[in-house]
Structures are given as C-alpha cells and as structure tokens.
Design a protein that fits this description.
The protein has 12 helices and 7 strands. The model has no long low-confidence stretch (mean pLDDT 93).
Length: 281
Amino acid sequence: MKLINPGSSRRGWHRLQNALKCPRLAAWSARDREAQSEACPSTPLIKGSLLHMGLAHYYAQKREKEDGKSESEYYDPVDAITKLVESQPAAHQGQWSEWVPMVTGTLLNYMLHWQSERWTPWEVEKELETTIRDEGRRKDFLYTQRVDAIFLHPQNGKTWFVDHKSTFKIMDKTTKKYSLSGQFLGYNLLGVRMYGPHFGGVLLNLIGWGNKKSGPEFQRITLPAAPFSQDRFEKTLVYAERILEDHEGQEPGEWPGAHHETACWTTYGPCKYFDRCHYGE
C-alpha cells in the first residue's frame, strides 16, 4: 500500500518565510532539520499534519475512482493517520496519538459534508516548481511549493489549487490573514506560469475544529486579489534568497536575529529558539 508524504517541498516558501521573519531562526531550523533533532511540533501543527494526511489519502482514492479503479493502491484515510503517528520519533508518539480520535472524527464529518461535491481531484500533494531570476546577481534559483490538491472546476474545466487549512473557528479574520501570505502569492505565481488562462485560482479549504457544543465546520473561499503584492512577489523571493546566500557558511548563532516581539513570541507561544537566543547554545 502507498503512503503519501505531505511534507515540505524542496525549496519552498516556508524556508524563505523563516529568512524574512528572522535569519537566525532560518539558520537554526535548517541545521536542526538536517540533524533530525527538531522538537515535537506544537499541538496545532500536529492536528493539521494528521488532518492533511487523511485528506491526501481521501482525495487520492477519489482520483482512483475517477480513473475507474476498483481497488485502491493507497492506505485508507484513517489508517494513513495512524501510520503518520507511527512514523514519528518514539518520544513524540504519545503527543501525536492524543489527537487521533478528534482528527479522525473531523475527517469523517468532512467526507460526509462534501460527499456530493462535483470538483474533480486531479493531483494530490503535488510539488510544483519554477525558476526565479535574480537580475542583480545574474543568476537563477529554483522555487518550489507543494500544493495539497489540484481540482478541475466542474463547469468550465479550469485548474484550481486547493490548500487545506484547519483552525479553531472559521471567522473573517481567519481568511483575511492569508490574503497577503507568500504561500498563496506563490500559488498564484506558479498557477499562472503553469496553466496560463486555464488557471482558475486558489481555493482555501477551511476546516474548523469546533467544540463539544458545536461540531466541526467547513467552508471554501477564494481570497481577495492582492495585485500590488502579487506583481512584486518575485522581488520578495529574490530578497529572501539573498539573505540566505549572504550568510551561507556562518555558524547559525552568528546570523542576525529579528529581535521583535512578534517574531520572538508567536500566537502559540515563544519561538522554539527563545531560550537559545537568550543564552546561546
């Protein structure tokens, strides 16, 4: 049986986002990732990762049905969630398994809610790539993003990129905060380059976890256009790549830090390198 890997792309936005947020964060994150010594993710990241795994297998199996296959090559969505837990370091599995019942229940509710959808899944967890030109340094670099799913519109046949996002509750501010996200500006850049006039846009597939009083909620929206930032997004990518290039070879602790409260203290608590920035390694 096949298990889909919904991990990060090779040279994607998350890496550049870290560089723009705090160069020292980017350096320490890259080194820890190479050494496979990262701490257990936060609870929202665990829940989101488990849900992404289930959704990936759900849509992979739907794609197989569209192709007329009667027997799936992929793990069942619920089994895939369990497999993801089992793939974690032994010390982290308890924290991951704690959320399996909740995530599984939300996934089953999602499947029931959208059971009559007519959108056709075309690709699942597809890595996209393009080349960005740095004219000032006369060089090209690879830019990649992994899209959760690619759907075909049931009426006009246009191609849409779908990004799954889980949240405590779906609110106006939940969607607004993504309108200038480099992840979505990147999707639009790649979509236009790959499909031209046949690209429909990016569909934000929201899943609200709900609580004991109200169950999970589901909503799909398209984000408002941001033409000013979209037109200048390649410049942002070039700037972020230059930050990484200019400090390459230095010890992570020697990279500059952002030293701003919104960078050092996130929505979910302190940056994972908060103490390390206080006292060093």
